[in-house]
Amino acid sequence: MPTNLPPEYFEIERQFREAETVQEQIALLEELISVVPKHKGTDHLRADLRRKLSKLKQSSQVRKDVSRRQSIYRIEKEGVAQVAVIGAPNVGKSALVAALTNATPEVSESPFTTWEPTPGMMPIEDIQVQLIDTPPIYREYVEPQLMDMLRRVDLILVVVDLQTHPNEQLEETLSLLGEQRIWPLEYRNRYEGERRGTFKPFLVVANKADDEQTEELYEVFCALLDEEWPSVPVSALTGRNLDRLKRAVFDRLGIIRVYGKPPGQPPDLTAPFVVQKGSTVAEFAARVHKDFIDSLISARVWGSAEFEGQSVSRDYVLQDGDIVELRT
User: Each residue of 66-119: pLDDT tens digit?
Assistant: First the structure.
């Protein structure tokens, strides 16, 4: 049966074939459907166009959802390190991040309050570390984009509720991460033959250690662990041990601060260079300027040296708080 299509149909069809985006194709398909005459001869054509339109809209929505998830969990790193704060529902992650940073995540006694990652900056003396509050981890649903984010961060804080089965919470969280091939750095030898595994430094944070009476709970928690874990008891509510937690984060990141001193001038103690623990004078020089690694003649160190201003070699290993004068 003839379709008797109008001339504008063919022009719109040509534009549809040349369309470069899904949104353009959707708009043109809707226009095509509107110009097709409604009679028995066009029933199959209109049905086919509607099926195409439905598929394109579904495809468009999937792309939007994927793009949204990627944008949510693709958080640009700020400060000297990026640290993810994870844990089971209602362990107090959001309250902890709010107490440590300038972030304002929604804090509630109800579980599943956090639906999107929320970054904030945590000061540790004269440096800044980025903390990211994350949605709760639970077995019923594992967000792939969250797992990808955990593979990118520098450190993972595993928060447990000291007053509500903390050992079970820790075991379950570690099990879920292990299923995603994300393991503590200490497990590297255990999974040496595994492919595509990610190993990250972990720090266990026993939250809701609100007063000295909870010290016994913390001791029981540590005694029942299958192995020794780096951990800190804290209270987001009272602020107890938050400075101790900051120091533990600094240590687990494996970093040191080194201050530069231009020859003949006082050192700049306001903006330290942050390098990995074990870094040498030569590595510090390369961090200051890429050309210094070749042009470095000598260096003097204040702090860890035997005497102040001691001349040291290029392979001298620096310590946290050292002041270094480079001569090129």
Answer: 555 456 888 999 999 999 999 998 899 999 999 999 866 555 454 445 568 999
Cβ atoms 72, 84 nearer than 8 A: no
User: Which residues partner with 314 through β-bridges?
Assistant: none
Please list the ranges in the chain whose pLDDT falls under 50: 1, 69, 108, 110-112
Residue type, 130: Q
Q: Token digits for 59?
A: 């495809």
0.85 cut: is pTM over it? no
Q: What is the spatial distance between Cα 74 and Cα 56, in angstroms, rounded to a whole number?
A: 26
Q: Are 120 and 100 in contact (CB under 8 A)?
A: yes
Distance of alpha carbon 47 from alpha carbon 188, whole angstroms: 57
In b/e form, how buried is each residue of 221-248, taking b as 16+ CB within 10 angstroms? bbeeeeeebebbbbbbeeebbbeebbeb
**What CATH number belongs to 255-327?**
3.10.20.30
**Fold (CATH) for 82-253:** Rossmann fold (3.40.50)
Q: Are strands 155-161 and 82-87 parallel, antiparallel or unpaired?
A: parallel
Round to whole Å and give the CA distance between 17 and 185: 53
- d(Cα 203, Cα 276) in Å, to the nearest integer? 18
Is residue 252 within 8 Å of 155, Cβ to Cβ? yes
Residue 240 phi, psi dihedral angles, 5° rounding: -65, 130
